[in-house]
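input
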Amino acid sequence: MEAAAVLTLLTLNLHGYHPMNGVPRFFEDPEGRLSAADTSPFHFTWEELSRGNQKRLDALARYVSELKPDVLALQEVGAGTPWGGRDCSVFHERGSAEHDGENSARRLERRLGGLGYQLWTACRGNLGWVTDAETFKERRMVRVRKGVREVVWDFGRNPYPNGILIEGMALLVRRPWRVEAHEEWNGRVNAEGHRSFAQIVELVHSTGRRVRLANVHAGHKVQHFEQATALRERLSIGPAVDGVVVAGDFNARPYRPAGARVEEDLEAAAVPRGELSMVPWQARVKGQYSFDLTGDPAAGRQLAHGLMRLNADAQYKPWAMITDESEAGRRVRGAVAWLTDLRREGRAPSFAEAVERASETGACPAEGTRQTRIQEVPTVDWTCRHPDRIDHVFFPPAWKVLEAWVGRPRDDHDPLPGWSDHPLVFAELLVQ
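output
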């Protein structure tokens, strides 16, 4: 039997070309009233995006160089420019010189040249951050610098009609792990013909240990449940491995009904306790809930009922609602039946979540129980409990978490100090 192996992983959603250290944005209505705007890239000029992305990549490279994870999983990786090529050939391009429209993961790889990372890219093919005539029709975009308002995009402007970039995923992998096989998975998720995308690799350690890893950027509500179920089936296929790891931006918090009875929680709002659509990743969580689905038909009916309520909740992610109730019913029943089959066949066992497990076992450094590598990065704010976290690392519960935490750069005086609007998640796992 092979010796146990350690897998260190860092996952981060890059959010396209994040304008690091940019000036805060505000919407201004015709009466001059201001309201805060988020950091969506189309709220910024190309010059700000280009300058901010370069700063972000420089800063991120310094952190990665200190942490030296075996695997770096990136989502919403950008390539291309608003006026140039924005297709998958641009995303995968391997040029000899760095430029603004070069794939951000490749630019990061250049900065990490001495660490021996190999880059694997996966192009989702969608254009990111497209504007139209309605985007700034009612409210214009301004920035406020030293108390002075400056118009960025005036009423009616349409600065990025063809989008800013093309978007995808990337993995950077270094020894003692290597990639034996790589797939840009684009699988069918329901009878309606909808599809989902993920980056999947077969990792092999120098000890011979093998891991199947998926880098994901998931959807919302019922769509998320369908995507997760389809991906669980795909991840159950292939050569024998010591375990499966799924990391990335799940766009949902794990379902945690806490002290409430599951039956009562299914009748409540979706937001306070996470999202029921996450059940394909964790069909049961001790002390929280169990949708075992292998022996009790009532569990499937209960799960389907909860998903229908989640879909119909117009206050929570209304853009993700399936408005046709008949279609919603078909899709929910189909997905629950699919997951039930996978569970009965033993092909979708429940995962553990790295930061949550680390918090329970004292392996998160914020609990102060052990000296850890996070102390090597004094400019990072880190925590074990991030209530709004939608970025996760799922792994086999039989493995041990040596360390896991959530981190953001520590810089309180800059308005946009972070390397993304997402936190990074770090996990050190014992593969056994």
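quick obs: Residues 262-344 form one domain.
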